Amino acid sequence: MNYSVFRCLTLISLPVFAASPRDEIASFNQKFRDATLQMDNAATMALWAEDGVTLLPGLAPIEGKKTIARWLDGVVAGLAGYRVTTQENDFHDIQISGDWASEWGATHQIVQPPDRKPVIETWGKILLVLHRDADGAWKIREEMWNAGVKPEPGR
Amino acid sequence: MNYSVFRCLTLISLPVFAASPRDEIASFNQKFRDATLQMDNAATMALWAEDGVTLLPGLAPIEGKKTIARWLDGVVAGLAGYRVTTQENDFHDIQISGDWASEWGATHQIVQPPDRKPVIETWGKILLVLHRDADGAWKIREEMWNAGVKPEPGR
């Protein structure tokens, strides 16, 4: 193969290497899951839009990235010795329209408290609205969660 | 004013009468609130997409308009004599991108049980993802709700 043909093939192939919006959301979902699993607040907050809002059960809306970061630091500070051992987010119906996207999912979390206390296992549901920021990255504009039910065996 | 001038003015004015997507969402929100206030299940279900999903606290996801309608009929059948006397949905951050839209809000509901029992007052939060259907109407694709807190006086 001479150089010019190789060059042509490279140019033709280039679009294959550009992530599709769907791939970008899949990558976002992986980061979102990993950040929770590792209780890495900086990594979690890197996924939030400046004007994001989280809507959590029994709380007033927490508005703005800085306010959410402060709240999250407080939560994790109160969980010294706790470890997230399982974090599964099974997202459905990913919809992308321009710079906006949405997806909902079933969540399953297992937390190991310190001193070999019994694990805390939680099933829930999540709904995310994402917005692509000026740098092209998908960020959380709205997050909502509530409790779900333990799936029946075989489902 | 001669006829041709009137005709020109009419043509120029026409776009004013076409609802903007933002007005359409406002109209959707009004219908959504009224249907809940009147406990009118048919009116509520007219606002749902065929493939809509509702994500309610403590329940598995309820998927599909027919399944949601059946569930809602069961809920209302169990509330004979109950009346919704207040339904306030204060929606924020309405975002529209093509045929998709999202909004979150604070909800406040007062329900009067039968036999002059004490009212049930609920503050909550809601997140909606809307999709414009083939007929151009906005329909609920995803709905999620969870409990909030009673606003402090003066807020």
Global Rg of chain A: 19 Å
H/E element order of chain A:
HHHEEHEEEE
Name the pair of protein chains with the most residues at their interface, and give those residue counts: A-B, 32 and 32 residues
| Tally of helical runs of chain A | 4
What class, by secondary structure content of chain A?
alpha+beta
Low-pLDDT parts of chain A are none
What is the percentage of strand-forming residues of chain A?
A: 35-45%
Mean pLDDT of chain A: 91
Lateral strand order in the biggest sheet of chain A: 2-1-6-5-4-3
First CA to last CA of chain A: what distance? 52 Å
What oligomerization state is this entry in?
Answer: homodimer
Main sheet specs of chain A = 6 strands, mixed
Total strands of chain A: 6
What percentage of residues of chain A falls in helices of 4 or more residues? 25-40%
Overall shape of chain A: globular
Write out key terms for the chains shown.
alpha+beta, homodimer, 6-stranded mixed β-sheet, globular, 4 helices
Describe what you observe in this structure.
The structure is a homodimer of 155-residue chains. Chain A has four helices and six strands; from the N terminus they run αααββαββββ. Chain A is of the alpha+beta class. In chain A, strand 3 and strand 4 form a beta hairpin. Chain A starts with a helix and ends in an 8-residue tail after the last strand. The A-B interface holds A 51, 53, 55-61, 92-93, 95, 97-100, 102, 104, 106, 125, 127, 129, 131, 141-142, 144-149, 151 and B 51, 53, 55-61, 92-93, 95, 97-100, 102, 104, 106, 125, 127, 129, 131, 141-142, 144-149, 151.
